[in-house]
Amino acid sequence: MKLKQLSVFLENKHGRLRELCAVLAENGINIITLSLADTEQFGILRLIVKEHNHAKTLLEEKGFVAKLTDVIAIEVSDQPGGLSEILRIEENSGIGVEYMYAFTIKSGENAVLLFRFDDMDKAVAALQNAHLNILGSVELYQRAEG
Amino acid sequence: MSKFVVENRIWDKEESLTHHELGALQGARLKETVERVQQVPFYKEAFSKTGITPEKIQSLDDLQRLPFTTKADLREQYPLRMLAVDRSEVARYHGSSGTTGTPTMVAYTHNDLKNWANLCARFLTGGGLLPEHTVQIAFGYGLFTGGFGLHYGVERVGAGIIPAAAGNTPKQIMLMMDMQVDALVCTPSYALTISEFILQNDIPRNALNLKYAHFGGEPWTEDMRTRIEDEMGILCFNNYGLSEVIGPGVSGECAVRDGMHISEDAFIVECINPDTLEPVAPGEEGELVFTSLCKEAMPIIRYRTRDIASLNPEPCACGRTTVRMSRVTGRSDDMLIIKGVNVYPSQIEQALLRVEGTAPHYLIEVDRPDRRDEVTVKVEIMEDSFSSSMKEMQGLKDRILRTIQGVTGLRMNIELVSPNSLERFIGKAQRVIDHRPKS
Ligand SMILES: [Zn+2]
Predict the structure, then answer these.
(1) In angstroms, what CA-CA distances link B389 with A100, B299, B392, B395?
(2) Which of A62, B139, B142, B172 has the fewest CB atoms in 10 Å of its CB?
(3) B390 vs A64: CB contact, 8 Å cut-off?
């Protein structure tokens, strides 16, 4: 139920970010969603792409440090309360959120929340118990393509 | 760790003279040297200024009456005004790179070259070199004394030389593998570059037959030694020298590896407080000062090296009786004064080697915005230490910051940069950029 996120270290953020997007575009790799966490000096770019292995190799050839990280994608209806429900479940199970980001799916009313928890296996179990809709990679890519 | 065991051999009997024998030899040779430098106008003038004549120098005790020689003096005498022989007697010239100004030239007679090779043979023997070994020299061959100095030292011992010179790392490794090289000679920075290449390209350790290495040409640290030894599975020996004094061969480690034995029959060493110019107590750090005793072409009197180290006169387990110098902890030329605190680049290196997840590749940039010194250390992260979690990356940054603060006492800005993004060095490393206006 876990999903691969492509995580990339970005020093000198602006120039490198442009370069990264160009590499992916030239190779026809579509970015489903991304999130940039940054400080004054460096950034961490988190990307969801279908061809993550290929993308990782391409970026490494260009001198980027890239890593595949497990994240969990949860589909919620795009209404108030969806996120707080998930956070409540995790808090009750003693699991911490390292980071999260969200995007809405083209076709429907629903949003997808992407999470990195400090204990990923425990998090999956707790979310499944609560009958939340965890998306596998195939489902996510299908929804993203509409 | 390496399984290589060094046989304890001593090359020359001059390495294990008694205190009395050494004193007598040094005194006699000092007298000769003082006579010889009367051919050099610079010294003739410096002597007459202080009222010293050669007759007044009778023994070692008179050394401290002699004037110092500084790097600035040598620059002023560029190119060859320090020559004490006729140019027709000169067999070789070398020089300093002149990265910080005018270069300096040094000269050798045939006798000087013979002595120099012998001095290098001493520390090479102390550090495991046997005639049946194959040695790859990855030092620059040129004006820099490292390449030729070590070359003739290895030749003097009778071992086989591969004069690979510096650079072209893949080829260096290919030669080491194909030729089953026993020993490597280069700067410690270049060894790090080589080791990194081996690891990154998954070259199996047993493809190389390398057993030990002799490093010199720049200051390095004990942590760096541990790292290179672990990565390459070899023993690393430190040696020291500078072109103004002779080049490599001034001192080097024996099998005990607790300080570098100075060839005291060829050089008198002093360790002084650079501000008061008074000698420091044995074991205390100070600036090393050398007087040559055997050089013909360019004898040098009380040369202030700017190198900071300490001296250990205790006898060594290897049987040599010569005084041992510590690692050079810094060159006062490289020393940065930040907010009034003395900092050496080697301290940054030492700190980085203690923080897991960083490579000792760094660049120190100093600036003075708003009249306050500000230091930024760019540090390469390692592939394995990259995490998608900002908390972990900040944690790494904080560990670096705190370790550097622990070593230097200063809070510096830490900038994490990509692996392999900083310049790699094939000779001496250049790790400081000082943007502050020169006062
Ligand atoms: Zn010894």
Answers:
(1) 11, 61, 5, 10
(2) A62
(3) no
